[in-house]
């Protein structure tokens, strides 16, 4: 591609509203432009990288036995009403009316469309399993679009849906697509983890998010420093065991702790460590009030509470509820003397606290020398806290560390959520009607582009991995008006294109400094500079990533390039 | 692809609401399904054909120097307000509000988006010309969606836009893209014509529509039976010359023609041919009333009137206007004694009428023995009528025939319509600010899929050309439960895939009749049937198009297939 024929509008300045590297660099290097908030045009360079990501996605999806189709963006409201999401999705689902005043949604996702399609066409177990995918534009009216392509309102997604006659078949396809996803992100060169995620209200047990590790990520990942284990922090079980201090139980005593409410205040006032304190929190779990105890240096993980009680909602009780139930304020709660009506659950760590401190259900008083086995009744011990850095990894290998992650993919065992709501049934081997069991699998294609840009850059600009780069080679004649340079550059451009390389040829009449700065910003892996030694047939080859520079005769060039590009 | 793993829901019955062959067959053969009126899902087979068409489009566009990008579907209203089309486009432009109540259009086309993009990024003649294209989903809320993909509300289009510093540059790119378009539709195997079209109010001189010839087309094309000439019938100039009959002028006479109004009535009552009658029609052209004369067997072409008077609107005068201006009814109008206030224009054919008939501007009376050079004053003779079958072709080669056409592509010299409205200017070589000159170029990608299906079918189903077929080979074991057949079929499936063919393998447990009927319906070019002679290694190869059947040993198969596929 001759640079004069395409549109690569580079910028010297960092755009004011671009907070993160990928957003800044994709704008500055002319890969994209914003149309309106959260809505972008992919300029030629951006389009090319997108297509390379799409090609990888297609290869891996096809390899996993998924079949491509293409569903519409305009989705009739009736489908969303059948699933119920017309009423629950909120303003992120963009809605409109057609000329006949019929309601439509702009596809934010395609569970409804695919379920209605498969419901209408597949009636027998003989046609299952079936895994269908598409690469398509999605619309979600984010409240606060940000970070460029990382959180936009119109974006490109690969979404896949699988339909099964039984759970084993779902498990099998889930595992295949899990592997395909790992391959896709590995081939994109990303530093990522497949993270155990919350399956929410969907009921499915298995769900993984594919997270690119990045400081700008919005989710915290707990991962093992030695194994593959990774989970959203809410999802990581705590397998730590706790050793009781080898000291004798002292006598339980109620002490005055005027105005000391928080763990910090109490522990400092009583001169004990937070680890010796027992934090008591009153939760409303569905309709029931439950007192939850964790060690003073730990935090209650409400997802674990929710799962323990198989509950719909878990919320902290309000001060009013607390007062009514316990006759004291939130900061004075404790398990001793809390009455028989209140169920108490405690985190395992509480059991190992010796001579600890807890609230006395009385304003300005705490118990000291608390020992759960001696002083508590009706307490169940469970895993209730958030995992922390330094905890043992739940898989038994290594120690937990935290990182932030950008979600680029998601695999999910949906179960029968949609097939039951929309009557997508089939006849099984015994002629019985069953709801299909479903899985769904998403990849943010445009978000992956941004995630790669976020991980592959340096102070000069983008640094594309060779297999995703918009071009593999960038030829720059230092002075295009110089007959010898221009003609050698053109000759190399033609011959390298014939050899199958994607070549960008900077044929613009610009100063060398501008061309080199643009080239660094764009980040094509190999630059070939044709300068003063063109008359001798000597050119300079520079590796964008390492900065390594070689002077080569044009006849040596093809072999060196081939070695470099195939080495990647 | 194993047929058991994909979704090809064939139908035996013709769907009730599908009027045309392509619509019926694409539904019956499982290439697509309707989601709602004018909105479709492309099932796996349909998606594959689309991708092949898209690949051809990309190759030819890239070859013509166009560069791909991707613009959004969600377009802010402000852009459409700048161009003015927010107010003029009508209900076909789908509109919506986002969560902040800001107005958006769903892209029906992208002149506004691309013009704003190029306006912001290109400032100098040095960056021109620039030709950008995308393959993208478009939305148009058609009043009456019909014929399946031929007139839908959500469809796939390739749209391109070019920007130029001068007219010569536009002409050059226009010609290149004209050639690219011809290549694209030729490679799709379509019987098409590049048709001279009406540039409407856009002011551009050159515009061509690429029309696939088809009885279900909505536009009438006048084409030469011997040359490449083709035009929308409104656009074809009439170059016919007319010979005056060699008979003496008789005396003008007013005759009583009670209740005879139409040309048919008058000519039959007076026992003259319609060719001897002169039809007089009063038009309101902008604000002016003009009497227009054509021969009785001809029709007035109002586009020609519009162009002749360089007018904004051309309408037949109402009976009231006619009465007021001419003091008679519409059916009695004529050029003799019509008064000096009314301008008269006549088609060239009128000049050659000898002793003709025309209205007398008096109810129930006509003039006979009318001769224009003797009896008319103030008449201008122009080309004013529609071309007819049998007329000489305007390019001087052959005779005009009519055909109906489906528009699949359009190339258009836009000029400065958008660049002026949206201030897309550049600095020319002399430092002067100029509006960019633009061209736009569209291809209906999903419509092309339907047009191919419309042209390539027979009574059994679709008959794909090899380069667009979803698969090239269809392997069918007659009885999949037969170990020998099944194993030979699998062996051929694997080896032919390795050889690079796209193979569909019917591994379903269905009766042979079902499998053969499905296969004919789907229309893959070559079918390989593995049946009773599998034990000997003998299979049957059938060419879908010709019905030709060959029995071959499996070892001969690759060579015969290669010959057939490469022969296409």
> Largest interface by residue count?
A-B, 60 and 59 residues
- Taking pLDDT < 50 over at least 5 consecutive residues as the criterion, the unreliable ranges of chain A are none
Tally of separate helices of chain A:
16
The end-to-end span of chain A amounts to 23 Å
Return the CATH architecture of the largest domain in chain A: 2-Layer Sandwich
Q: Sum up the overall morphology of chain A in one term.
A: globular
Provide the domain count of chain A.
3
| Overall pLDDT of chain A | 94
Main structural class of chain A? alpha+beta
The CATH homologous superfamily name of the largest domain in chain A equals: Bira Bifunctional Protein, Domain 2
Fraction in helix of chain A: 25-40%
Query: Biggest β-sheet of chain A: count, sense, barrel?
Result: 9 strands, mixed
Structure report:
- The structure is a homodimer of 568-residue chains.
- Chain A is of the alpha+beta class and 568 residues long.
- Chain A has 3 domains: 58-237 and 402-448, 2-Layer Sandwich (BirA Bifunctional Protein, domain 2); 253-382, YbaK protein, CATH 3.90.960; 471-567, 3-Layer(aba) Sandwich (Rossmann fold), CATH 3.40.50.800.
- In chain A, 28% of the residues lie in helices and 29% in strands.
- Chain A has 16 helices and 31 strands.
- In chain A, the strands form 8 sheets. In chain A, strands 3, 7, 8, 9, 10, 11, 12, 21 and 24 form a 9-stranded mixed sheet that branches. In chain A, strands 16-14-15-17-20 form a 5-stranded mixed sheet. In chain A, strands 28-27-29-30-31 form a 5-stranded mixed sheet, sandwiched between helices.
- In chain A, a hairpin with a 5-residue loop joins strand 11 and strand 12 (230-232).
- The longest helix of chain A has 21 residues, at 167-187.
- The mean pLDDT of chain A is 94.
- At the A-B interface, strand 1, strand 2, helix 2, strand 3 and strand 4 of A face strand 1, strand 2, helix 2, strand 3 and strand 4 of B.
């Amino acid at each position: 591609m001759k640079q004069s024929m395409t549109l690569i509008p580079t910028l010297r300045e960092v755009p004011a509203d671009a907070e993160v590297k990928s957003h800044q660099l994709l704008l500055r290097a002319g890969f994209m432009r914003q149309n309106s908030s959260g809505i972008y045009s992919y300029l030629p360079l951006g389009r090319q990288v997108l297509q390379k990501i799409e090609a990888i996605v297609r290869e891996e999806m096809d390899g996993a036995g998924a079949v491509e189709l293409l569903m519409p963006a305009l989705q009739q409201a009736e489908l969303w009403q059948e699933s119920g999401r017309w009423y629950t999705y909120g303003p992120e689902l963009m809605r409109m009316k057609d000329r006949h005043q019929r309601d439509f949604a702009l596809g934010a996702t395609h569970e409804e469309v695919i379920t209605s399609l498969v419901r209408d066409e597949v009636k027998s177990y003989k046609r299952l399993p079936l895994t269908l995918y598409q690469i398509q534009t999605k619309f979600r009216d984010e409240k606060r679009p940000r970070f460029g392509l990382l959180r936009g309102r119109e974006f490109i997604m690969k979404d896949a849906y699988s339909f099964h006659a039984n759970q084993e078949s779902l498990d099998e396809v889930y595992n295949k697509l899990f592997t395909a996803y790992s391959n896709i992100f590995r081939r994109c060169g990303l530093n990522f983890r497949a993270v155990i995620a919350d399956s929410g209200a969907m009921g499915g047990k298995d769900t993984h998010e594919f997270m690119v590790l990045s400081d700008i990520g919005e989710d915290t990942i707990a991962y093992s420093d030695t194994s593959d284990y990774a989970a959203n922090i809410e999802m990581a079980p705590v397998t730590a065991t706790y050793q009781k201090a080898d000291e004798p139980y002292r006598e339980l005593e109620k002490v005055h702790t005027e105005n000391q409410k928080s763990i910090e205040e109490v522990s400092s006032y009583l001169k004990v460590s937070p680890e010796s304190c027992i934090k008591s929190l009153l939760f409303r779990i569905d309709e029931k009030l439950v007192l939850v105890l964790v060690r003073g240096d730990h935090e209650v993980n409400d997802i674990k509470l929710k799962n323990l009680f198989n509950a719909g909602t878990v919320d902290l009780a309000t001060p009013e509820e607390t007062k009514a139930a316990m006759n004291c304020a939130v900061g004075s709660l404790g398990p001793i003397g809390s009455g028989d009506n209140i169920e108490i659950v405690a985190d395992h760590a509480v059991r190992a606290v010796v001579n600890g401190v807890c609230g006395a259900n009385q304003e300005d008083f705490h118990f000291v020398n608390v020992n759960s086995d001696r002083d508590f009744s009706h307490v169940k011990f469970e895993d209730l806290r958030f995992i922390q850095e330094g905890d043992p990894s739940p898989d038994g290998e290594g120690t937990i560390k935290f990182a932030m992650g950008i979600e680029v993919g998601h695999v999910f065992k949906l179960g029968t959520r949609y097939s039951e709501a929309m009557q997508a049934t089939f006849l099984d081997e015994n002629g019985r009607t069953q709801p299909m069991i479903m899985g769904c699998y998403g990849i943010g294609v445009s978000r992956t582009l941004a995630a790669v840009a976020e991980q592959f850059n340096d102070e000069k600009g983008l640094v594309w991995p060779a297999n995703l780069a918009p071009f593999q080679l960038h030829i720059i004649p230092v002075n295009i008006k110089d007959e010898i340079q221009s003609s050698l550059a053109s000759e190399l451009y033609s011959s390298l294109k014939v050899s199958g390389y994607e070549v960008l040829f900077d044929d613009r009449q610009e100063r060398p400094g501008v061309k080199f700065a643009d080239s660094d910003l764009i980040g094509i892996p190999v630059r070939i500079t044709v300068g003063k030694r063109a008359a001798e047939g000597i050119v300079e080859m520079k590796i964008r990533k390492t900065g390594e520079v070689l002077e080569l005769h044009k006849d040596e060039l093809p072999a060196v390039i081939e070695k470099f590009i195939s080495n990647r």
